[in-house]
């Protein structure tokens, strides 16, 4: 097969690839993740790059999605353009997702430090001649004296123990997870005991290295989920797996590779070898968990949406290709239901909904919205496909929360003011900025309750001329709003269609909540506490969430933002047996409501499209 070289800029990454490879896939090979909301179906136009030479001619899809001006300047869709000669490919910041803000902090639970994973330094008295003595049984007896009843061990340890004891003066360290004897080590290795908590999201992966000898956080790392190139949300990933033989194996490989890279980063930051990590605890949405475990997820996506298993599960880490101690284990928290994964179990683990008298609501806002409502009497959950609008997908100037994204906007003294991430020149709008913009324009009367951008003469008299001057009329009769000038010809715009995307996304979330409220016969005023989880949620202003109808109308002071509580939950499970003991039954306790085929969901959805 003929090969050609590609130089990717910026970053100057270069490699040789087989002729015919898509530029998007070549980039991924080098760890460059290009936005690919539609998973390469050729509908989103988010994967734009600039290719100098060496690319196949533009496809029909590119002729439809790119302007003639863009095509003459070498702009291409990286999911369409194939390599035919040596090439230079420039990935612009809005397509390149490096530098992203990934949340790794979240609300912690109140559990005393007492991990399942422990090390025991043991001195076994040497055998006397004539004594009835078995090496391995002596070890088990010593552990029993420390309160540990071993019920499972690898038989290879029985083979190894005799030499280990005699070569090291009968002094060894036993590594135990609950009642599973993981391994035996020579001498006293008790200070070297680490675990890693993972939160596997559709978009991002966060990891925390914990010293399980003292309970301290040793390092934190995060990355984009490399599967992003195969679809922005869970449904497009499942579709990719269904439609491509080998799709599951590919997505599995990608996520394991990324987890291993994060493990390596954590070890470098903390200055420890990977062999000192004996356990990982994983929280994540159901699909991510299935892909890591190599379980075919197709049944999640088709009625009656039956998951294969709930969990929890503990596996040998090496079976999954995870590079920690060769005898280390991987613990997966249990899922709640079809698309309500173990990330929500982890969130509930650090909250106390199951102990509260008052009604509480948890909302995790992502490409899929997950909600749990109830009290100690009854808890119900559901999920609702919000789509990737909050991540900037299908928004004309949308982008993820990276440098240069407009993240805050406010109308001050009659005109729009905004702030960008990193105080950089604006290059697009991320989810929190989008919500701010829409809410501010609705409150100002520039956008009406139905979501329509009004003509200047339809706006209330109080709307300032500076705001009216931002209107741009489109030939099709709709209006758009100019947000920030980029140069003499180009501005970042909020388009009419973008507002519709916001309405669809917020309506999906709040309709799911309304279904749960209906099931539990709860009114907004009955909800004593609203917890908003997730990276996007943490950047939402409580007032905006209420004013745009993303959540029911509750007093703003009842809203709490809990950050990456899924990672905090996985962390809690590593640090405290009590957290794991809470998580496992909790997953069974929470009831599930399937909303997809309920007519009242569709009624709520239509009714919630309007701004309240
Ligand atoms: S158009 Fe290329 S990934 Fe969507």
SSE layout and pairings?
Blueprint: E1 3-9, E2 13-18, H1 23-29, E3 48-51, H2 60-65, H3 68-72, E4 75-77, E5 87-90, E6 117-123, H4 135-145, E7 152-153, H5 156-167, E8 171-177, E9 180-186, E10 194-200, E11 204-211, E12 216-224, H6 234-243, H7 247-270, E13 277-284, H8 286-292, E14 313-316, E15 329-332, H9 342-350, E16 359-364, E17 368-374, E18 379-385, E19 405-412, E20 415-420, E21 428-429, H10 431-444, H11 465-468, E22 471-473, E23 479-485, E24 491-494, H12 496-519, E25 527-533, H13 535-539, H14 542-547, E26 559-563, H15 565-575, H16 577-589, E27 591-592, H17 599-608
Parallel strand pairs: 1-5, 7-9, 10-13, 13-15, 16-25, 18-27, 19-21, 25-26
Antiparallel strand pairs: 1-2, 3-4, 3-5, 6-8, 8-9, 10-11, 11-12, 14-15, 16-17, 17-18, 19-20, 22-23, 23-24
Helix pairs in contact: 9-15, 9-16, 12-17, 15-16
FE2/S2 (inorganic) cluster (FES) is lined by residues 36-38, 40, 42-47, 77, 79.
Task: Provide an overview of this structure.
- The structure is a single chain.
- By secondary structure, the protein is of the alpha/beta class.
- It folds into five domains: 3-90, Beta-grasp domain (Ubiquitin-like (UB roll)); 117-186, Ubiquitin-like (UB roll) (Roll); 194-332, Nucleotidyltransferase, domain 5, CATH 3.30.420.480; 351-388 and 502-608, ATPase, nucleotide binding domain (Nucleotidyltransferase, domain 5), CATH 3.30.420; 397-494, no CATH class.
- 29% of the residues lie in helices and 25% in strands.
- The strands form six sheets. A six-stranded mixed beta sheet has the order 12-11-10-13-15-14, sandwiched between helices. A six-stranded mixed beta sheet has the order 26-25-16-17-18-27, sandwiched between helices.
- Strand 19 (405-412) and strand 20 (415-420) form a beta hairpin.
- The relative contact order is 0.11.
- The model has no long low-confidence stretch (mean pLDDT 90).
- The chain binds FE2/S2 (inorganic) cluster.
- Residues 36-38, 40, 42-47, 77, 79 line the site of FE2/S2 (inorganic) cluster.
